[in-house]
Amino acid sequence: METFSERLLREHQDTWQAMQQHRFVCDIEQDRLPAEVFNRYLVFEGQFVSTAIAIFALGISKAPDISQQRWLTGVLNALLDTQITWFDAVLAKRQVSPADYPNDLPGVIRFRDGMLNVAREGSYAQFIVLMFGAEWMYYSWCKRVSEKSLSDEDIRRWVELHAEEEFFQQAGWLKTELDRCAQTLSETEKSALSALYDDVLRWEIDFHTQAYGEE
Ligand SMILES: Cc1ncc(CO)c(N)n1
């Protein structure tokens, strides 16, 4: 039988493919992403890691019991340790100062506020859809792209971080958790989650487009 996460992937194939074949992803895959685009991405992405920390904290507060809270706290710690540490180092190494970049680009704001609003106002299942939407999609393209030879070592490391076993476990946990949550939901609730999943992918697409500039 089709699981709920499989249903979401089937119902939103087109949006999923648009992200998997996004210009940003294809430029990395073909080893031709301009350094200035990656630098701009790093600024927006570093800000999103802070947002993700808030989203996970909200998710932990809504988790139904201690086993989920324990797992999600591990994820939160990885964001605070591995990811924040990596961002500080890579921005310094590439001499990128976030203050030199715009902080009001619509694609970046829509993604941040869309995710944060749902995490604040929504249910635990909605939180799981947000992070399943973001992480499973990243695992998929990064896994594919990690097979290629990438000449920029920072891009290579960033892709590897999202293709390796630890991240796969994290994204896979969200997928299983979503399927578990969906078992007790009505069809009305499930179709609302399906619409939210499509929103997340669209926010992601516009966020990544924004790395190319201010259009
Ligand atoms: C913008 C964005 N979406 C998803 C992920 C996956 O965690 C990420 N690191 N950044």
From TrEMBL:
Pathway: Cofactor biosynthesis; thiamine diphosphate biosynthesis. Its EC number is 3.5.99.2. Keywords: Hydrolase, Thiamine biosynthesis. Residues 11-212 form the Thiaminase-2/PQQC domain. It comes from Rahnella perminowiae. This is Aminopyrimidine aminohydrolase. Belongs to the TenA family. PANTHER family: BIFUNCTIONAL TH2 PROTEIN (PTHR43198), SI:CH1073-67J19.1-RELATED (PTHR43198:SF2). It catalyses: thiamine + H2O = 5-(2-hydroxyethyl)-4-methylthiazole + 4-amino-5-hydroxymethyl-2-methylpyrimidine + H(+); 4-amino-5-aminomethyl-2-methylpyrimidine + H2O = 4-amino-5-hydroxymethyl-2-methylpyrimidine + NH4(+). Transmembrane segments: none annotated. It is an enzyme of class 3 (hydrolase). Catalyzes an amino-pyrimidine hydrolysis reaction at the C5' of the pyrimidine moiety of thiamine compounds, a reaction that is part of a thiamine salvage pathway. Thus, catalyzes the conversion of 4-amino-5-aminomethyl-2-methylpyrimidine to 4-amino-5-hydroxymethyl-2-methylpyrimidine (HMP).
